[in-house]
Structures are given as C-alpha cells and as structure tokens.
Amino acid sequence: MPATSGWESHCAQANLICMNTTSPTTRRINPSTWNTPLRFDQAQLRPAPTEILTLAGQASIDDDGRVLHEGDVEAQLSLAVHRVEELLAEADMTLADVFSLTLYTTDIRGTLAAYEALTERLDAVGATPPATLVGVAALALPGLAVEITAQAGH
Known about the structure:
alpha+beta; CATH 3.30.1330.40; 3-stranded antiparallel beta sheet; 4 helices; disordered N terminus
C-alpha cells in the first residue's frame, strides 16, 4: 500500500474525499462527489500566492461594448470563458491558476445545459476551481445571459 500524507490520513479518518490535483501544493476538499461532473471543488487549500489577479465580470461583449450572441446562452458562456482566458494570459496565468470562479446568469437551466463550454476548458488544464453559479434577474447590459468573475494567483 502506498504511503499516505498527513492530510490523506485526515481525509480517511474524517470520511472526506480529498484528491490531488496536478499541483502538489493544492489540496482539493470534497466531502461528497455531486460536484464532480461540474468540474469544481467544494473547497481548495492552497499556499498564499505571491500575485493575485482579480477579474471584473467577463461576458459576451465585443471590443466596442456591444452584446454578442443575444439569446444563445452556450455561445455567451463560451465567449465569457474566452475573455477570462485572455485576461489570465495577459498575467501569464491559465484557468489552472484560478482559485475562485463565480458565474452569474439570467438563465440557470440554459447555463447548466451549456456548461460543457466551461468544463471542456477546465478539463484541458486539469482545473477544478471552487465555483458558484448565481441566478440573477438581469445583468449590466440588456441581452446578456452570462457573466463570469474570477480570482487567480501564482
């Protein structure tokens, strides 16, 4: 039997599901597995980063501030994730560096149906950041269905 670390022993004793990520410094904490298909952890314990990037809400908006893909939640989610990835790249980061993700939507069912637009990007880098999906009555611009905020660090 392979040797276990102290936290793995703690997880076993507390009957928690704790998994390693590709980063040996991040401890994923999941007392249940319902969140697994959605590619997020219920909690993560990470060492303090030396740099933190905070992202304002990213959405399906062109460079002139016009809403794109009105009425198409999947396209809006995909473009919002792309905008997040662009900002992360500007800071030499990827989705693997995200330690908190919040999705705001005017259409919970539509966003969940289109969620693969996010999970395929998370899977590509092995990321499972703690995430929250929040239903709202409206977003900043008419026609927006999805907006994403994130915090990342390294």
